[in-house]
Each structure stands twice: as C-alpha cells, then as structure tokens.
Amino acid sequence: MGFTDWMYTIQQRTESTLDAALPQVRHAPSRLHDAMRYATLGGGKRIRPLLCHASGEIFAADENDLCTAAIATELIHAYSLVHDDLPSMDNDVLRRGKPTCHVEFDEATALLAGDALQALAFQTLATRCPNIAPERQIMMIHLLASACGSRGMVGGQALDLAAVGQQITQDELELMHIYKTGALIRAAVLLGAHCGNAPPDALEHLKHFANRAGLLFQVVDDILDAESSTATLGKTAGKDAVQNKPTYVSLLGNTGAKALATSLQKQTHDILSPFGERALRLHELTDFIVERNF
C-alpha cells in the first residue's frame, strides 16, 4: 500500500473509532456531548494517530490496540486545542476551518468539553486494550499522563503564555516546544511501540526520534503560520506575530527556520536507521510533516 492510501486508511479508522468512543448527543448532557464531538470529529490530519500506528507497525502490534492508543492521543490533542483557543489562552475564533468550540457553543461548555475529552482519553486507554498485559497498560497510562502534565503539554503551554512579548533564547524556545508540542508526539510514538511490546533499546531510539520529529513539527508550524493563508491553514494565520509570541521564524527568520527544518528532517531520518525498512511509515511521515508546507 502506498503512503497516501495508508494514511487515508488510518485517518478513516481513527475517525470511526473516535465516533464510537465519543458519547452520543442523544444522551444527557446533550449539549456537552455535542461540543465534545464537534471539537474532535471531522477535521485535522491525525498526525498523532498516524505516528502511533507507524511506530506500532514496526513491532507487528495488534490493530485494535493501536486504534485504542491512537484515539487516546487524539482525544488529548482535541482537548488541548479547545483549551488553547479559549479567550484566556490564545483567544482564537477559527480551528480546522470552522468556529472554535467556545465560539460555536460558549466558554463554559468548551471548558467542560475539554475536561471531558481528557477524562475520556484515560478511560479509553484503561479499558480497551485486551491484548496488552496489565503491567504494560499501566505503564502506557502513566506515559500519557506524564505527557499531559506540568512537565509536558500543560507545562509547555504555561511557558508559551509566559514568553509572550519576551526575548528568549533558542534553547528556551526548544524547551518550551519539547513540552508543548513534543510531549504528546513522543507519547503517540511510544504508545504505538508499547502496543507491540517493543524492547527497551528500541523505545530509547523511538524516544529520540519523537523528540526530533516533535521539534520539526513545531518549526514547520511556525513557518506555516508566517507564510500561509487562513484559508490554507484552517486557523487564523499570522496570529503568533500579532500576539508577539516568540517563534522559530521570529528568532531565526524565515530562511533560518527553513534551514533548521531541513537539518531536523535529516536528523530524524538518521535516527530511524536501526529499524531498517520496518520504519518506512515513520520515514514517510517525517517527510509529510515537512512537505505539507514549503
């Protein structure tokens, strides 16, 4: 199967698994359930589920287990976007080509929808992995929780908010995004590997890969924000500059940011060499992260 067909298959499988896992609107509280589904279904490239599946395929992981791990990461991602878009955070009105959750519903409902999506992610990971040993399942839950907390995605958001209008170094910017963007990407890759009972040395290689891939994703995201239109992105373009946020473009310029992305792309490919052809999908996803933009 070619990469495009493989990607479409995983995206559709992710969508249908999310649809089944999310509560139906006919059940109370219906408005909250409607907001949860609105924020999660029908949008996004599903990068984290794709990485989860690609990693798991290296170790012949069970497809159902991979779907469970994949949607757990996507539910966390969806919750983070709902909260990031709130007026108290980034105050954005457009996400995935449609009004943000708090615009479509209201701030209180959006906040609760994000909370409920986070809870559902852990409920899913705790109850839907029949082929994974309980000890490894607990390890996976711990991994995802760590990726979400103060030393992960939420901590990265706190650093991001504190950096608005500030002059920070490239090392400080990298640390921020290792937390904010990289932590969940790392979790997606490692959860997929855990579904296939990957040995410790392989997990270390994949952790290193995910750190570079997460940083690459963020550098590319900064370039897209600076160069693409709102129609292309499906979210408000140029908002980082308007909000005076430090980015790789503001720090290095467009040319410097693109050079960094090229360097990170090569590093990411090189890290996968021990896996040989089994890592084909991770190689393809690395290029997809870059080629979706410039």
How would you portray this structure in words?
By secondary structure, the protein is an all-alpha fold. It contains 15 helices and 2 strands. It has a two-stranded antiparallel ribbon with strand order 1-2. The mean pLDDT is 93.
What average pLDDT do the residues reach? 93
**Sheet with the most strands, sense and barrel status:** 2 strands, antiparallel
The first-to-last residue Cα distance is 26 Å
| Total helical segments | 15
Topology readout:
Blueprint: H1 3-21, H2 30-40, H3 47-58, H4 63-84, E1 94-95, E2 98-99, H5 101-104, H6 107-127, H7 134-148, H8 153-163, H9 170-180, H10 182-195, H11 200-227, H12 230-233, H13 239-242, H14 248-271, H15 280-291
Helix pairs in contact: 1-4, 2-6, 3-4, 3-10, 3-15, 4-6, 4-10, 7-10, 8-9, 10-11, 11-14, 14-15
Keywords, please?
single chain, 294 residues, mainly alpha, Farnesyl Diphosphate Synthase, 1% strand, globular
Brief synopsis:
The protein is 72% helix and 1% strand. By secondary structure, it is an all-alpha fold. Strand 1 and strand 2 form a beta hairpin.
